[in-house]
């Protein structure tokens, strides 16, 4: 398989990956105004999505119907604001459309809808899209195309039995076009994964289920470039990239907090968080914690 | 008339259509010969019904027509959310074939009794439901099921035919035998054969009826159901499924919406049935042809006292 190369859809060269990630975070914060969004879960995968869409995926707004394109399935669907922000910045749809987040006139709600350009499939119920991705990977093998199939999973999502069932099948079928990307932010809805249903040693578990595993820092573009530089990691095996991340990354006032998964912000609170994002001030803890699940 | 097996028809369809793929969760009873014929287009994922259905959705996203096999219970119960969310919601052309539904699970016991599968599949918008009466109708219907762009649940049944299928098969079209107006028996699946035999026994006792083989429950042949209600004194539903949510619910709902006044007798299950070999199951649960005939005749007698009203007739 070929080494990752830069997509033709790169935004203007003056925008670095870090700057693009900053813009995506701004979008995420704005999407938490009013009805709110899963802000903490979205902020942990911003670098992952920016890196994958910008440098790894053979995909772009003009390649959605290209039979040779790659696929990215967002199985951890509640982090979709990060995907919306990334797709809007990369030209899949106009940025102004993000202002219609939660509007009944559009399809931008708390979980992905495949009617939105660039969104591969709807998700939200955890543990589904590995199976769907396996189907796509099976067909890629049948037809003999160059496509690769990425699945972004939350670490809390790994509680679902369907994930481990899917890994058994992916491994049995030797689906080396399949790349699991685990957003290992250490938290599930309300608690730390290790305090509820421990996942560690996660690397050993994934390897025991037939994956070749790469552990990486999930907010460092250099580390991500190494992690996805050569795929698959091993012929005949699914690849799993486990990215150590931080819930709420970029906003010190909510970083790593179990009670900052979903937030509803007033415009003023969003303003404070945007200032904090740019390092101008530390926001007072905005919004009451909401227990959604 | 086709005398071919399900497997032969599916193999022929796969030869015609290179996009057809056959999946199974290690349920190969009806498709043992297909691996050799289909090669890599035969995919066995092992006992993983959720992955089975999700993968079928992924294959359909790439333009495939997946024909998916598993035991009806495990397919519709274990993988229900995958069917609803990954197949039903996007409306993908996945064909779900549920084996040994209803009484056909025989002595397996309640874990294997798919007696709520129709109710579950009805709850998914856009899902087609096909219940062939026998292997001949299964073979007749399969090409249309595969050609249809809609997700479809096929309640697999390959018992030998006991009624002739002269009119071919069309989704949404019932098959009507006879034109008597004392009673209409509306049945689906393998109980169509028992119902036909029961009507012959009733005819010998001077009761003239008709059989409506509702081989596709979705889309429903509403006209055939309404006609049965309008023209017959008594409408009887016969199903190896819970009465709630299945054939009885479909037929009574249709009649009520059509404001048709008639007598109703719903012969179905209230709970799990006694596990045994099929003839014993039928006898124990009251679904042999003589038992069905007797239950209908009793209902007609009670019906005689309440003509002209819609009455749901109990069996006491």
Tell me the layout of helices and strands.
The complex is a heterodimer of chains A (293) and B (316).
Chain A: H1 17-31, H2 39-43, H3 46-56, E1 71-74, H4 80-89, H5 129-143, E2 149-154, H6 161-172, E3 178-184, H7 193-196, H8 202-208, E4 212-217, H9 221-227, E5 239-244, H10 267-277
Parallel strand pairs in A: 1-2, 2-3, 3-5, 4-5
Chain B: H1 6-16, E1 20-24, H2 34-38, E2 42-44, H3 49-61, E3 65-71, H4 72-78, H5 80-88, E4 95-99, H6 117-122, E5 128-130, H7 135-147, E6 152-155, E7 175-177, E8 183-187, H8 191-204, E9 209-213, E10 216-218, H9 222-231, E11 234-242, H10 247-257, E12 263-269, H11 278-285, H12 289-303, E13 311-312
Parallel strand pairs in B: 1-2, 1-3, 3-4, 4-6, 5-6, 8-9, 8-11, 11-12, 12-13
Antiparallel strand pairs in B: 5-10, 7-9
Protein model, in words:
The complex is a heterodimer of chains A (293) and B (316). Chain A has 293 residues and is of the alpha/beta class. Chain A is built from 10 helices and 5 strands, in the order H-H-H-E-H-H-E-H-E-H-H-E-H-E-H. Chain A has one domain: Thiamin diphosphate (ThDP)-binding fold, Pyr/PP domains (Rossmann fold, 3-Layer(aba) Sandwich). Chain A is globular, with a radius of gyration of 18 Å. With 316 residues, chain B is an alpha/beta fold. Chain B folds into 2 domains: 150 residues, 3-Layer(aba) Sandwich (Rossmann fold); 138 residues, Rossmann fold. Chain B is globular.
